[in-house]
Amino acid sequence: MRERVYDGDMYAFDRLPDTYWMATAGAPQDDEASHLENDIRADVAIIGGGYAGLSAAHRLTSRHGMSACVLEAGACIGWGASGMNAGFVSMGGEKLELADMVRRVGEDETRRYWRSQVEAVDELSAFMASDGSDCEPVGDGNLCVAHHPSVVPALAELADTLNRRFGVAAEFVHRDRFREEVHGGPEAWGGLNLRPGLAMHPLRLARMHAKRARAGGARIFTATEIVDWRREGKSHRLVTAGGASIVAPRVLVATNGYMPNDLAPAVAYRGLPAISSIIVTQAYGDRELDARGFRTLTPIYNSRGLLSYYRRLPDGRILFGGRGDTRGTPDAAQSQARATLAILRRVLPAFADAEIAFTWRGLVCLTARRTLALGRDPDDPTVAFAFGCHGSGTATMPWAGRLVADILAGAATESDVPALLRGLPKKLPPSNAALRWGLRAAYALYAVRDGLHV
Which residue in 133, 177, 284, 305 has the most C-beta neighbors within 10 A? Predict the structure, then answer.
């Protein structure tokens, strides 16, 4: 196995994910798996079978008449973040304060960014409504809960600024109403609701994207890890672990946090994978959930630096997640799951009896500039990329996949990408050990800041 940032357990591509989503959606059907056994050619080779890669494949075939081949290392569609996330549909792709956005790209470009994200959520909602597949869309917005009274003024001001200057439907929900309509507890001091937004079943959504891409003529291969990439004249040859090759004049890198740093120099050490840990509890009845004060299906995250995110699932369970460990070993996964359960009980003390029914983890992708990276390799315009959605990619990454497909087809240029997201971010230290230690240091700093409420 090639050298990775974390323990090899994080990259067990041959193992089906053992998640709540897999348990409720069912194992992949035989017609969903196709392993590449022979050399093939395509107009565009897409590395990564998640939301971005699948949306790009559909766009290339249906809109631009190009042949597209999707290469997914995992054993099934939805193996990575697209099938293992918490199912939040939000405006995202960045982890920047609003003032930092304006300082970086100006108010007009910041407004352009927010418009693109409203569009992304609206398009995804329309897509989910267009098919008979049940992605279980629920909720109205995304709620950021003030975990401490000191956070309330800033969230209220942000709601006002987003509404007045940037055209975002933001509403501040005051403490009493929040506790009546959302949930109570020691970390519920009001909240900011951003619309549009909702929650859904992410694995079913990933399968919807794959179904549409196949219907449009794209070829999708699972269990197809790329282990070598070289130029041959005007084409790229991508070699799989099984020895088969894909030859294509254009390549899209859409692997997010799972891209090895020794495969593609253009994106090497441009993204920092971070582990997220998710648990799902036993099921509660609707009346019991209401009586305990958890009354909404709208997804929630808190205002801590080391944030938690959680939601009431349609079947009465509670999903709760947060940042994971920094090793990736099986033992670390179990320890982190227990720590995540302890945080759930602290945030929602009415659920002190909560137990873990399902637990899993996966990788999100961060960048040095704290935004999504979208565009083309400046040294080779036949290579495009879309990565770094910072854990908020269910709507952003399909939108990004469509846009980067248009760029590869010559129907759009990089000027069509909002400036906040355009081009490659700065390189991180070229050492996996340094990345892990840097992440640990950042977590320690956030923990101190959270403790001081600053």
Answer: 284
